[in-house]
Specification:
Largest sheet: 9 strands, mixed
Helix content: 25-40%
Structural class: alpha/beta
Shape: elongated
Number of helices: 13
Number of strands: 16
Distance between the termini: 37 Å
Order of helices and strands: HEEHEHEHEHHEEHEHEHEHEHEHEEHEE
Strand order of the largest sheet: 11-10-9-8-12-6-13-16-15
Strand content: 15-25%
Length: 368
């Protein structure tokens, strides 16, 4: 059994590091379940690996056990998160581990799910399986920060992103791209890493965006489109409307007549009526709770100035990417400015701010 004084070897750390790499590869792609990595070692040789499947199943431990071409008796399992121990849509991983006679289980951090937390440890001990925890806990806890926030707040982990010119414009008539090709690729990577993406109908009507991931081979992981549209004023000739169906588009609205809602419903769009605050803005927290109930765990917000300010003032961004171009845009009407810098500095401490040069652009990451 394990104690707080557990000591781990360099090899232990190497195997857990590999398990974390496996988990990281599927981050944001495992639906409602956390992404887990698993490595099985026997006689100092890796005999199998596994990671959580897309949309959350099968679990990493199950995949690693299934993938092994050798008998697992006497082997050691390294897994980033405490194995599940209860029946859900699949049998418990603890049962498979016991059945296959693994000798040791080393997991990095406890699951925060009350159905699991701490119980697997006791189960393994009762079956005379050596169990240790805490290996690379700092790195793994940091990786599972979104998952822990999901479970604690019953809301998605929210990432914000906006691109501004040197003179702080986010829109100038006739200009399609503000940042360079490297920043554009990072934007698509963020879309790949998040299961949902939110904008307002104003951004949609002005830009007619696609909101998909266009990195080669990854477009099938494009996020679900979430549109805030109080009166259903979205352009029905837009790309988003034309490509919408019940699985890829959700619109939050407040008021619209039946003839208008029927047009959207016939397209297969999921419409959710949502209340407004006194200032006639949507209750963002309420919407985030609803998105969580719909299975959204990682939300990317690519809004304009107003939507970004709403999230910033309520400190709802868990992190926020500010893309700054070295090029200025024209202030000939119409143009739009980003003026949330003061709110950002007040709500997100400077010590949690990271600056990175990407191509010609400066990327500033604000962390909560």
């Amino acid at each position: 059994m394990s104690t707080r004084k557990d000591k781990f070897s360099k090899k232990d750390k190497k195997y857990m590091s590999l398990a974390l790499t496996l988990a990281s590869a599927n981050h944001g792609l495992t639906g409602e379940n956390p992404s887990v990595g698993c490595v099985i070692v026997k006689s100092d040789e890796i005999i199998s690996i596994g990671q959580t499947g897309y949309n959350g199943r099968p679990h990493a431990e199950h995949n690693a056990i299934k993938n092994s071409i050798e008998t697992l008796e006497g082997s050691t399992m390294y897994v980033t998160l405490e194995p599940c121990n209860h029946y859900g849509k699949t049998p418990p991983c603890t049962k498979e581990i016991i059945k296959n006679k693994l000798n040791r289980v080393i997991y990095s951090v406890e699951d925060v799910d009350k159905k699991v937390k701490g119980k697997s440890f006791k189960i393994f001990v009762s079956k005379n399986i050596i169990v240790k925890k805490g290996l690379l806990s700092k790195e793994v806890n940091n990786f599972y920060k979104p998952y822990f926030i999901n479970r604690k707040n019953k809301m998605p982990y929210v990432t914000g992103k906006i691109a501004v010119s040197k003179n702080d414009l986010i829109y100038s008539k006739g200009t399609k791209k503000i940042t360079d090709v490297h920043s554009n690729k990072l934007t698509h990577f963020l879309r790949y890493r998040n299961d949902s993406l939110m904008i307002t109908y104003k951004t949609l009507n002005e830009d007619n965006p696609r909101l998909d991931c266009r990195l080669e081979g990854l477009n099938k992981f494009s996020p679900k489109r979430i549109i805030l549209d109080n009166n259903l004023e979205m352009n029905i000739k837009s790309y988003i409307f034309r490509t919408a169906n019940k699985n890829n588009t959700v619109i939050f609205y407040n008021k619209a007549d039946k003839s208008k809602t029927s047009i959207f419903k016939k397209q297969g769009i999921k419409l959710i009526k949502s209340s407004l605050l006194k200032n006639e803005d949507f209750d963002i927290k309420l919407i985030l709770k609803k998105l969580y109930s719909l299975g959204c765990r990682n939300l990317l917000v690519e809004g304009g100035n107003d939507l970004s300010r709403s999230f910033i003032k309520k400190r709802l961004f868990n992190n926020f990417y500010l893309f700054k171009s070295p090029n200025s845009l024209s202030k000939l009407v119409p143009y739009k400015e980003f003026n949330c810098f003061k709110d950002l500095s007040q709500k997100y401490k400077n010590k949690n701010k990271i600056n990175t040069k990407l191509g010609k652009d400066l990327i500033t990451l604000y962390n909560k």
